[in-house]
# Entry
Amino acid sequence: MKNKLGTLLVSVGLGLGLASGTVMAQERVFFGIATGGTGGTYYPLGGMLAQVISNNSDLGDKKISATAETGNASVANATLLGRGAIESAFVAADVLDAAYNGKNQFDGKAIKNLRALGALYPETVQLVSQPDIKSFSDLKGKSVSSGSPGSGQWQLLGDLLVAYGMNRKDIKEDYSSFSQSAEKIKDGNLGASLITAGSPTSSIVELSNSHDVNIIPLSGEAIDKLRQSQPYYAKTVLPAGTYKGIDKDIETIAVRAIWASHSDLSDDVAYAVTKALYENTDTMAKVHVKGKEITLQTALESVSIPLHPGAERYYREKGLIK
# Structure
């Protein structure tokens, strides 16, 4: 966090008092990455990204030591960045845009120091439910989780309810994390949960391996209406076989995850970490199937807020920005 991250720590020379003299250790720059809960995709990819940065970033005579931290997902992560409490975070593209421009949950509270480092991968909106819930309208009167407080799920659920001609009074809203939602569905204590993450998502994999579940399609006129108000959502398909018991393709929507920072991060550090990621995407692909979708070619997709100058310098070198 701010009391240690981003601060240079100069190691005391080894062998103090020895006749042979003092050997100085390399200076370190600590760099944090706020991710999400352990049941989603942000967490494992953030951990691998921290390793990639620590092993491959170059600051000359300094070494970047990166760490990934669990978090409460997009809304909370954007707020952390706004306070300068961490160097970087994963944030959904629509939430990042809302935070920068002071919309939706950030109405009147625009966070103008947010900066983008690059786009990551598309996150699939998965509306996971008990087997007897087949459509969105079946959610009426049921308990539905909109994710941890501070996540982007709350706004998404509200948008979906409006698109389908419903409101929050039509459901019993729950605020469980992805992992908690999976456990509640398994125990019969929750009707459905919105889980927006890279698929396959570990919490859904574990749930479907031990409990029959359904994934409700999100398509048709209602979704066309939603996409008019939330243009960051793209139509996508969750392939058959992604989870046990899901034997047909499911039409749904997705939004790209963005790696974001703030304006106080030094240009040199922003350049170094951006380069480390996009020149080592093969390593990211080894930890999660969504890591394969992180590419330099798509690094600027869905980025609607200003780029960090350090990241922009890297993209100019690579020819993505003229």
